[in-house]
Amino acid sequence: MNDLEMYREQLAICDDKIIDALVERNSIVEKIMAYKETYGMPILQPAQEAKQQHRLEEKLRDNKYQEEIQDVFQRILRNSRRIQARKLFSYNIVLIGFMGSGKSTISDYLSTVFDMKLVEMDQVIAEKEEMSIPDIFATYGEEYFRNLETNLLKELQTGQNCIISCGGGVALRQENVVEMKKNGRVVLLTASPETIFERVKDSNDRPILDGNKNVEFIAGLMEQRREKYEAAADVVVQTDNKTIVQICEELISKLMELDGK
Length: 261
Ligand code: S3P
Hints:
By secondary structure, the chain is of the alpha/beta class. The protein contains eleven helices and five strands. The protein has helices at 3-38, 46-60, 66-88, 103-113, 121-129, 133-140, 142-155, 174-183, 193-200, 215-232, 244-258, and strands at 92-97, 117-120, 162-165, 184-190, 235-238. α1 packs across α3, α4 packs across α11 (244-258) and α7 packs parallel to α8 (174-183). The chain starts with a helix and ends with a helix.
């Protein structure tokens, strides 16, 4: 055997070790999940993840392959997140609620921590139409926009393990709610009119609130919509005065409860 052949054999042995280590690592990730479930512990533990990352950085300091190895660990971390997500949610998570209730923020966080695909409905519609939401309303009217929402929701039913962040009006059509529930669990985020006002007061991309940006209008419209939102929801999470992690943790545990986990 020449040297080259010998190196190739050594490389194959290394690859086998990596495979064995990854299999072991993934099964430990599953054990951690099961432990947290059994003892009702929070699924999200950002402090622990930061600690793990810090440990890796220390270990790799002065290592000549530091960058390459960190790159691999990013992948490993993403895959761990995916393993957790698949174990927890075999369906789409559909977020509904009033404008400013936190749908986009919470969807964004969830999609990152579980490496789940994120569909921000307003954004997809704006991209497809090559127009902003206010321009769609101004040019074609609200009914046209609502039909775009229904069509998109229907298209989304082929996906699984996605986070779908709906525009605030999506859950008002019964037809849309039927679509959401085909493949997903519906999470309603709520907040008081005062909190909503604080969150939306500086944005100009919500035509429904044009010239109506005040607590009274918000409270009135919210009350009009409340019954439909609540009827659509599988779980409700109130968001006032809570951190993103607290809201997500509550959302996850309520979904797990719903699934009898
Ligand atoms: C709407 C909410 C908006 C957007 C459109 C109409 C509504 O989405 O879809 O301006 O009727 O509540 P956000 O809830 O994400 O602001």
